[in-house]
Amino acid sequence: MSSEVSVPRVAVIGGGILGVSTAVHLLRAGASVLLLTERGLASEASGRSLSWLNSAGERSTPYHQLRIAGVDRYRTLFASDPARDWLRFDGGLMWNAAGQADATEARSAYERNRAYDSRLLTADRIAAATPGVDATAVPENAVFNPGEGWVSLPDLVDFLMAEFHSLGGELVLNAGKASVVVTDGRATGVELGSGAVHDADAVLVACGAATPAVVAPLGVEIPNGSPVSMLVITKPLEHDLEAVLNTPRAAMRPNPGNTLALDHDWYEADITGHADGTFSIPDEVVQELADEASKLLAGNPELKPASWKIGHKPIPGDGEPVLGELEKVPGCFVAFTHSGATLGLIAGELLAGEILTGNKHPMLATFRPERFA
Ligand SMILES: Cc1cc2nc3c(=O)[nH]c(=O)nc-3n(C[C@H](O)[C@H](O)[C@H](O)COP(=O)(O)OP(=O)(O)OC[C@H]3O[C@@H](n4cnc5c(N)ncnc54)[C@H](O)[C@@H]3O)c2cc1C
Question: Which of 48, 149, 180, 216 could form a disulfide with 231 if both were Cys (CB 3.0 to 4.6 A apart)?
Fold first, then answer.
């Protein structure tokens, strides 16, 4: 970005966690920010995410390091008010299906080799590690990761937007499908669905699963591996669950208001896509997920689905984040990633730095969009 620009103007397309987080980090650094989104804030993946904060399991070292930094930023936020009911660090518990005790053990050993806090537990030791779990649901062993947590992204977006407004950010809701305006090979602004154009010195495309489609007209190809997924929120109930559970038939975490958030992937084939872009699933399948989740909870309380949302889960084609400026279109940046909850704060921080200084952050080196070229 030119040093002659005293107050850089940045347009951010996409009102999910990545767009909102980057917008706030830009405002903190003194930029003028226009945030625009197709409909409402957190209307897509960020409004229906399990948002388990973790770097569990196996992945590339740079991705692991970025996720650890992501968890670190959430810990800082958590420490500023540990009483928030939408950001908790009470650990994560996972187990595999019966007969896979070796795989569970190997996962924990792999994690410990990376100095990731990982404890292999037999079923009888789970109650001492974390409350509210029916240990009879655990076939042989489980991995407890005490340093993990969860966040409710709609609450985090609300929290960040209060700062966005206090710092003078400009928000356009119901902007329709916006696009990047390019002049002489450089991004110079955004065009809203209405045709209105806003000039900017830099543009960030943070459109979740739609990111590849938004940059395609610029001649940039980013493979899209985003599957369709569902998140269920239960009706309120009394429960003691604190950890995030990842198990063969249900994933689950606490959610504000004494509710639970449920997720998995075994029912993907039961989801039907419609011509208007919406999705549906039979009520019985939603109840089946709730019944599977009930088996994981101490006392096996009946779980009643209150609402469920279905849509794409953003995942780049090779599974790794896509973060940074497009070499082909200077001034245009992208943020497209799986695990965008875990990365939400750190990605916003690092991207804002790159957008405003032009200095490429070393931790994003392997995540550049050009790797697909
Ligand atoms: C079921 C599920 C479970 C998940 N579990 C986890 C987890 O456990 N841990 C974890 O870290 N992550 C998890 N994720 C992933 C994480 O939630 C997402 O990576 C993150 O929310 C993505 O945020 P985003 O801002 O990139 O995209 P989104 O939240 O999808 O936001 C993109 C926004 O851009 C807008 N938009 C799109 N196109 C345009 C356009 N042309 N013009 C204007 N606006 C546009 C959309 O309307 C939307 O508001 C999960 C996701 C799902 C769906």
Answer: 48
Atom of ligand 1 nearest to the CA of 229: 1
Smallest CA-to-CA distance from 116 within 148, 140, 73, 88 is with: 148
Domain ranges of the chain: 9-47+153-224+317-372, 86-149+225-312
Q: Domain 9-47+153-224+317-372 belongs to what topology?
A: FAD/NAD(P)-binding domain (3.50.50)
Q: What separation in Å is there between the alpha carbon of 243 and the centre of ligand 1?
A: 23
Please report how many Cα atoms fall inside a 13 Å half-sphere around the Cα of residue 94, on the Cβ side.
20
Say if domain 86-149+225-312 classifies as CATH 3.40.640.10. no
What average pLDDT does range 290-313 have in this prediction?
98
Q: Is 16 in the pocket of ligand 1 (CB under 6 A)?
A: yes
Residues in contact with 208: Cβ distance below 8 Å, sequence separation at least 6, in sequence order = 14, 16, 18, 44, 45, 46, 226, 312, 314, 336, 340
CA of 18 to the centre of ligand 1 (A): 8
45 Cα: distance to centroid of ligand 1 (angstroms): 3
Say if residue 2's pLDDT is above 60. Answer: no
- Residues 132, 303 contacting (CB under 8 angstroms): no
Is the Cβ atom of 313 under 6 angstroms away from ligand 1?
Answer: yes
**What does the block give as tokens for 188?**
């110079």
Contact 255, 104 (CB under 8 A): no
Q: What is the mean pLDDT of residues 50-70?
A: 98
pLDDT per residue as tens digits for the range 83-116: 999 999 999 999 999 999 999 999 999 999 999 9
What's the pLDDT band for 5 if we cut at 50, 70, 90?
A: low
Closest CA to 231 of 21, 40, 44, 14: 44
Average pLDDT, the chain: 97
CA distance 181 to 186: 8
SS3 for 32?
A: strand
What would the mean pLDDT of 44-55 be, rounded to a whole number? 98
Q: Give nearest CA residue, ligand 1 atom 27.
A: 208
- For the CA atoms of the chain, what is the radius of gyration? 21
